[in-house]
Amino acid sequence: MTRVIGLMSGTSVDGIDAALVEISGSDLDLKIELLAGATYGYPTELREKILAVCTGTPLSMAELAALDDAIAFQFAQAALAIQTGLPGAELIGSHGQTVYHRPLGVKGEQPVTTLGYSLQLGRGEVIAEITDIKTISNFRVADIAAGGEGAPLVPKIDACLLRSSTHNRCIQNIGGISNVTYLPVSEGNWLEQVHGWDTGPGNALLDLAVEYFSNGRKTYDYNGEWAASGTPCEALVEQWLAQEFFKIPPPKSTGRELFSRDYLKQCLVESEAYNLAPADFLATLTELTVASIVESYRNFLPHMPDEVLLCGGGASNLYLKQQLQIRLDSVPVLTTDQVGLSRDFKEAIAFAVLAYWRNLGIPGNL
C-alpha cells in the first residue's frame, strides 16, 4: 500500500484540488482508497495573475519564473495541508497549472508549428523540496513527447477505475474545458477501443460571462441558477457550433487559448442581434457546452453510450446537468459519485494514480 497525494488545478483556475489516497496493485488492477480530499483556493492576486497569463498578458522571464515558484509554493502548501492528522504521503503527483496549451498542428508544416506544446507552472522540484516528498510532474509534456496531444490524460485511469462489464460508458469531465473518455463494455479487446478527447468548452466561458455580467462580484453561477432563469437562443447555439474545433475528429485537445475572454467578447457581439438578457446569454452558453458534448458523441463515437458519468465542477451545475439529460434523452446522466468515485476529486486522484504508475515504471497512457 502506497500513500500518494494527487494535486490538480484546471483551466477554471478556481483552486488546487488535493487528494490523499492509498493505492495498491499494478496496472489496471488497482485498489484505491480516498483518505482525504480538499480544495485550496489561490490567493486572489495570484489567481488574477494566472488568468492574465492564460489570456496572453506578456511577462518578463523574471516575472514568469516568480509566478512559477509562487504556484509551486501553493501546491506544496496544499500537499502539506491535506496530510494534517493523517499518515504522511510517500509520493506526490502534481499536474501544475496550465497557462498555455497548443495541440499538434497540421502534419507537413515546420516542426515549430507542427509539434504540440503545453506549459504547466508550479515546478515539481520546488514542491519536493518544500514537502520533502518525491514529486512527479510534467505529465502533459511527457505525453506530447511520446506523440500524444497532452490532453486529456485520464483515459487509462478511467478504464482502470470506471470500466463496466455491462454498460458502454462515457466519462464526461466538465472543468474549464470538457473532455470525454469512451469506455466500451470490458470484454474482449475492449481496451483497444478506449479513447478520449476534448469536446469543447466546459465552465470557462460561463465563468467569464458571470464575472462580466456581475461586474466582478461573482466568479461562477452557483448550481446554474442564473442560467436556469433564462431561455437559450438555439439559433445562436447552432451558429457557435459551426466553430472549426467542433468538426475536427479525435484525437484533439483545446484550452483557454481558443475558448478565451476574446472568444467570449465575440460571442457577446454575435448575441446583440438577438437582444438577450444576461440570464438568456448564460443559458445559451450552457447550451453550447451541452450541445458540443452531445454532438461530439454523435459524430465521433461508434454508437451512443448506455450511460454518462459526470465529474468535475460542471457536475455540480444542476441546470447544465438537466439540459444534458434533455439532449441525451433516454441515456442516463449520473455522476461518478454514484459508482463510488468522488466527482470533485477524480482529477486529483487521477494524478495520484499517474504518479503511482510512473514510480513503478508502468505507462500512464494507452
**Main pleated sheet:** 6 strands, mixed
The helicity comes to 25-40%
Q: In the CATH scheme, what's the topology name of the largest domain?
A: Nucleotidyltransferase, domain 5
| Residue windows where pLDDT falls under 50 for at least 5 positions | none
Strand content: 15-25%
Query: What does the radius of gyration come to?
Result: 20 Å
Strand runs, count: 11
Text of the CATH class of the largest domain? Alpha Beta
Fourth-tier CATH superfamily name of the largest domain: ATPase, nucleotide binding domain
Q: Tell me what the CATH architecture of the largest domain is.
A: 2-Layer Sandwich
The number of helical segments is: 14
Give the total of domains: 2
The overall pLDDT, averaged over residues, is: 95
The coarse silhouette is globular
Question: Could you explain how this protein is built, in words?
Answer:
Helix content is 40%, strand content 22%. The radius of gyration is 20 Å and the shape is globular. The strands form 2 sheets. Strands 1, 2, 3, 4, 5 and 6 form a 6-stranded mixed sheet that branches. Strands 9-8-7-10-11 form a 5-stranded mixed sheet, sandwiched between helices. The longest helix has 23 residues, at 278-300. With 366 residues, the protein is an alpha/beta fold. The mean pLDDT is 95. Helix 12 packs across helix 13. The chain folds into 2 domains: 2-150 and 344-360, Nucleotidyltransferase, domain 5 (2-Layer Sandwich); 155-331, ATPase, nucleotide binding domain (Nucleotidyltransferase, domain 5), CATH 3.30.420.
